[in-house]
Amino acid sequence: MNLETCRKILREKLKFTSFRPLQEDIIRSVISGNDTLALMPTGGGKSLTFQVPALALEGICLVITPLIALMKEQVSRLNVMEIKAVAIHSGMTAEEIDIALENSIYGNVKFLYVSPERISTKLFQAKATRFNLSLVAVDEAHCISQWGYDFRPSYLKIALLRDIIPENIPFLALTATATPAVVKDIMTKLRFRKHNILKTSFARKNITYLVRKVEDKGSYLMKTLGRTKGSGIIYVRSRKKCREIAEWLSNCGISADYYHAGLQHELRDKKQEAWSSGRTRVIVSTNAFGMGIDKADVRFVIHWDTPDSIENYFQESGRAGRDGKPAFAVMLYMPADKKRLLDSLKKRFPPVEKIKDIYEAVCSYLNVPEGAGKNSVFDFNLFDFLAKYRLPATETYNSLMFLQREGYLEFTEEINNPSRIHFIVGRDDLYRFQVANESFDAFIKLLLRSYTGLFTEFTPVNEEELSRRSGASRNTVYQYLVKLASFNIIRYIPGKKCALVIFTEERLVRKALYISPDNYLLVKERYEERLKNMIEYIESENRCRQMMLLDYFGEESDNCGICDVCRKRIGEQQNVSIDTVTEKIREILSERSVDAAELVRLSSLPEEVAINTIRQLLDSNIIIKDNEMKLSWKG
Ligand code: ADP
Ligand code: MG
User: Fold this and answer.
1) Does ligand 1 come within 6 angstroms of the Cβ of 16?
2) For 421, which of 77, 99, 621, 635 is 20 to 30 Å away at the CA?
3) pLDDT number for residue 306
């Protein structure tokens, strides 16, 4: 296998012209059969690093990823390129999952996407031994770290695969945020045969990081939005504030809208689309916004409220300036914020008894009796649950996260599952049915005309579209489908949108529900530590912002020269010594003309100071530049 083959795949199958930095190194490492940890910022192009090797190698690539929405998006993107990819997630029925697994064994499938909780099921493990695997890709690999900021217990089960698949299958772990401790943890937990990290720099040279201590965030915002151009994101904590700020901005004549996870799916899509296409300039959002957004020309990301970790801050602010042009990441801060952050700690860690109450409430809400429920999947509407049991939102949510962390339950994001149908009779039987039941003939013909693959697998269908095409009402279409299903002609799974709860264990009696106090304390400690780091970032006045962020992720760097701390430092240095610096430059230039780089070197001054002064002297025509870029003193 050589890289020429990979370049060809890149061009011909994926339709890209060239690799981005590091993509080629990661691909080379994977193709040579090495376990590999790839660290690249969000938007850096991690997906390609398993897609290319998978297409180059024989067999199927297993991709493990926690977010169902992103999974579905990638699968449909691959399918559009005529690359066979299937997904398995908890929103599917047992029958659908079985068909997808069988197709992965026999059906020329190149990519099998699964959510992590799938790995530990008996069915999956039995089938996995029969896959012709080429590679295992683990996306969002930081979720495996128990003490990291986004732990998911099902990630720990991924390593079970090692026991049932051939030893030489490489694992590729991908992540955009990992501190040095988490990096090590990922490789250990995934049982890497040899530690092997490939990492791009996380420096974002075009982003100006600013921390603004202000009394009145609103008027700062207004001033900034008036002065800057282009579109941006404002992150706030509460849904209520999202709406208030967006409305206030709109009233002041700034094009703005709001976004949070409590809104209907269609509405969210609409709002996101309006912002992505530039019709809405500013989106005010909770941290629900960002998943899968691919907008390159975001000019600013402003945090009205402080995130609870550098990991989150780096991800969110990193949505600015993907196009490489100058962009701003601004953190607004006032002393009360610190107190609020520390207060949030209490809500974040409810007492163990409270967590147990919530567990019992969930079980009763879903009608799960003691001893039952293992591996069951339920639709779960958090708001309905909260309302029914009169529970406080934040504390309940965090209790649920604790139950997830301890491995009892797992939650999915809200997923949008379209309706699916599958013909369970062959073409001949179907034909006989059509002849015998004329009233269904036209509708069946419409189905066959509109969709392909109906005989081999569950295929997404759209009742609206069928209604438009047939001229029948949506309800008539629905009735047709239900009837065909009752005649055992098709299987019909009506579409729905909801979040899911998966019981990873059977329901336990209250006494047996064990929340390890050591874990509880350790998780709390780590959380406090992350908060402390976040506050330190904000309160520090003498370390370059970019340098602090990179240092957190274990990367060395120079002063960025553009953040508020750097600007202040440069300003001070210049104020005290501007005359001396100017005098030095005059001395050098009065002897001979030199170019700027040489002048900086000869002056033996700190580089930023020299460059800044030269720039000012050029601007005010005190020194001039000739055709050969040589500088001379004009005075
Ligand atoms: P990540 O998973 O690292 O956040 P993705 O894999 O989703 O990033 O890629 C981000 C974007 O970059 C996608 O739109 C993808 O098509 C694009 N991309 C990735 N690699 C290349 C490349 N070599 N040339 C051009 N575009 C690329
Ligand atoms: Mg990705």
Assistant:
1) yes
2) 77
3) 95
Task: Measure Cα distances from 159 to 119, 138, 185, 407 in Å.
Answer: 9, 11, 13, 16
Query: Would the CB of 67 count as within 6 Å of ligand 1?
Result: no
User: Which architecture characterizes domain 342-415+499-527 according to CATH?
Assistant: Orthogonal Bundle (1.10)
Task: Please tell me if the CB atom of residue 42 comes closer than 6 angstroms to any atom of ligand 1.
Answer: yes
Give residue-wise pLDDT tens across range 338-372: 988 888 888 889 999 999 999 999 999 999 999 99
Phi-psi region of 309 (alpha: psi -120 to 50; beta: other; left: phi over 0): beta
Tell me, which fold does domain 3-199 have in CATH? Rossmann fold (3.40.50)
* Ranges 23-32, 351-360, 394-403: which has the least confidence: 394-403
Domain ranges of the chain: 3-199, 207-333, 342-415+499-527, 419-494, 574-633
Predicted TM-score of the model (pTM): 0.81
Which of 7, 12, 18, 20, when mutated, tests ligand 1's pocket best, judged by the most ligand atoms within 8 Å of its CB? 20
pLDDT of residue 135: 97
Q: Give the fold, CATH level 3, of 574-633.
A: Arc Repressor Mutant, subunit A (1.10.10)
- What's the rounded Cα separation, in Å, for the pair 6 and 417? 34
Domains 342-415+499-527 and 574-633 share a fold: yes
Task: Report yes or no: 430 and 444 within 8 Å, Cβ to Cβ.
Answer: yes
Ligand 1 touching residue 526 (CB < 6 A): no
Q: pLDDT tier at 292 (50, 70, 90 boundaries)?
A: low
- Class assignment of domain 419-494? mainly alpha
pLDDT at 625: 87
Residues in the chain: 635
